[in-house]
What we know:
Mean pLDDT: 89
Distance between the termini: 37 Å
Structural class: alpha/beta
Strand content: 5-15%
Helix content: 40-55%
Number of helices: 18
Shape: elongated
Number of domains: 3
Amino acid sequence: MKRKDIILFMIVGTGFNSKSGDEGFRLLAQKLYSTITKIYPHHVVFFASDRSKETIGYIEELFENDNDEFIFEEDYHIVPIDAIDDFNACFEVFESKIWEFDMDITKEYQIIMDYTSGTKTMSAAMACCGMFYNKDLISVGGDRTTGEVSVGTEIINYQNLYKIYDRFAVIRIRHNFNANRFMACIETLKRIVDLNIEKESFLNLCKAYYYWDNMDFENAYSFLTKVNINQRHFIEIAVKLKKNLKALGIIVNSKSENLKNCYALASLINNSKRRAAEYKYDDAIARLYRSFELIAQIKLSKYNLISSDIDIDVLLEKNVSEDFINYLKKMEEDGKIKIGLTADFLLLNELGDDLGKYYKEHENKIKDLTQKRNNSVLAHGLESQSNEDFENFLQVVVDLALKLDKDMKRFLNETEFSKFDLKLQYNQF
């Protein structure tokens, strides 16, 4: 593996702390020199104000005393930094040099940033910049008996920022989870190393909702059962998680087909709402259309009827008119009468069912909505759907769902995804 050239960033203070004048500059130069010789970088970038540039001349002298050279522009260069107490100005100066080296396609550089010297503002800006761009940060410690690090006792401390990066990662995960970007959560979780973070439960949580969002109920339930709801990271969503777990458990394990189907329907309606929240209206309406079909199919099953294989004998038992039976027979295919959404609801109307009556009462509106869906790019056309189209379709589907089962509001509530309360905000620019 090719060794990267080390570039050492150093902020240069004035030397005016406990010492003053020439002695202060020389003392600071000795400390900076010690760091340079310990790291042995390919090149040093000094960030210095006019007042602190004198220090660098003394560093050259120290190299000469050791029969070595420290040549301007070859071994080091100076970046002027005037606003030494302006955080943003300092940050931008450091950032511009990081970009300069990172964007160099001819070489690979390892940037090490020493934030020990300089004003407090310069140090804070360099530390933040290094953290932001994931660069190696160092500080110089040693014997501080006199209040400052004594010359000759310098120790270079590499700052391991994994805890900070992991905490930023958790905040991003919470935001991505609420935005239904579950795979992004999973990829971020893989990089977390802090053992104090409940990584496995987080992974299981995100996998559960990823599968649920894709209507894979069995995998969703399996992963959600592995989440330790009592862990601190999940306290705020624990109540909702329990409801979600209950809903998935019913879909997967209930012996009542009707109950399973109603929970699955509620999941599908909530699924459509999530797509609409992402401005994916064609996708959302495609899910509503399937919900619309499913409502009719669930209700027909209560009459012992299946849309894909209508039993004429059952229709005769229910006193369905001969004309309507003949209408359905025209849809016979491969020896089976297979009917679609419109015929489903017309059949329910023939049976005197409230869902069928609702369909007939709103037939023109529903036909308009379904026609728009048919013209969608995700159906048979190339038209895009709008939020208004979605809201109109959603109203019809929810009205029918509520008529389908008296407990549908509860089903919708229990299948609505858990969301973190994002009280802790991070900089979203």
